[in-house]
Write a structure and sequence with these properties.
The chain has 247 residues and is α/β, with parallel strands linked by helices. It has a single domain, classed as 2-enoyl-CoA Hydratase, Chain A, domain 1 (Alpha-Beta Complex). The mean pLDDT is 92. The structure holds coenzyme A (COA). Coenzyme A (COA) binds next to helix 2 and strand 5.
């Protein structure tokens, strides 16, 4: 791994973006490394953060200079696949943001389940100011979070906002002066919750289609096949702390 560092602790894995450029631009090699780290750890709760002075200031603009339309199409297609993959990782994925989360960096954060930011971090999709548009699902995920008109305003003007404003808009879940510390605390809470139920909740809250009401009922039925469901009910009734095993 040339562009990321990995730390594993029991059920939690931290992925640190660490490029030689201090604002951590995301080139394809970095994205593929993040993908590989997550792919090979399907059972882990993930925290993504940046070393240096940023989460990530976005796609590597240097690489755009020579990019042909077919290369750009491939770049966006593969980037989108990786963002979908993160959004569908079985366990929660938390973005811990400091410094900058711009362009592809913010899109990476948007693909995560939770975003924790410092108050003064700068977040946004400034692609339009570079003559391009978000290409890693940012237009769609922003629309889901902000609605049509607000997301159009945000993206079409290439707005850059502080973490505090992003919290008010609902783009980040929590503000913290130490986002990784808060992310680790939340990941710790997840690590004692039943993973199958967590996975079903993630499926239902992150996927969008009309079948989700039916699927909710199906998965509600399926969760009752698990030992963790029985343990949860039994522990509650016996006034004990449940010990979930993932079965
Ligand atoms: N890709 C490649 N290099 C980048 C980059 C990016 N997305 N963002 C910043 N850099 C480089 C700069 O070119 C500069 O390199 P240099 O030291 O060789 O000149 C270095 O990182 C520091 O950037 P600089 O602008 O001097 O630092 P700053 O602290 O004044 O500003 C940012 C930081 C992040 C606000 C500013 O660099 C910026 O706006 N970057 C572009 C963000 C963007 O548009 N992202 C969307 C890309 S699609």
């Amino acid at each position: 791994m040339n562009n990321i560092e990995i730390e594993k602790k029991e059920k939690i894995m931290n992925i640190w973006i660490k490029r030689e450029i201090p604002v951590n631009p995301l080139n394809m090699e970095t994205l593929e490394e993040i993908y590989e780290a997550i792919r090979s750890n399907p059972e882990k709760i993930i925290i993504i953060a940046g070393r240096n002075k940023a989460f990530s200031a976005g796609a590597d603009i240097k690489g755009f200079l020579e990019m042909k339309p077919s290369d750009a199409f491939h770049f966006s297609t593969r980037g989108n696949e990786i963002m979908h993959f993160i959004a569908q990782h079985p366990m929660p994925v938390i973005a811990a943001i400091h410094g900058y989360a711009l362009g592809g960096g913010f899109e990476l954060a948007l693909a995560c389940d939770l975003r924790i930011s410092t108050e003064d971090a700068v977040l946004g999709l400034p692609e339009v100011t570079l003559g391009i548009l978000p290409g890693f699902g940012g237009t769609q995920r922003m629309k889901e979070l902000l609605g049509e008109s607000m997301s159009f305003d945000f993206i079409s003007r290439g707005k850059r906002i502080k973490g505090s404003e992003a919290k008010e808009l609902g783009l980040v879940n929590y503000l913290s002066s130490n986002p990784v510390e808060l992310a680790s605390q939340i990941a710790g809470e997840y690590s004692v919750l039943p993973p199958i139920a967590l996975n079903y909740i993630k499926k239902l809250t992150r996927k969008r289609n009309d079948r989700l009401f039916e699927e909710e009922a199906e998965l509600f039925g399926k969760i009752f096949e698990t030992a963790d469901q029985k343990e949860g009910a039994k522990a509650f009734l016996e006034k004990k702390k449940p010990q979930f095993t993932g079965r």
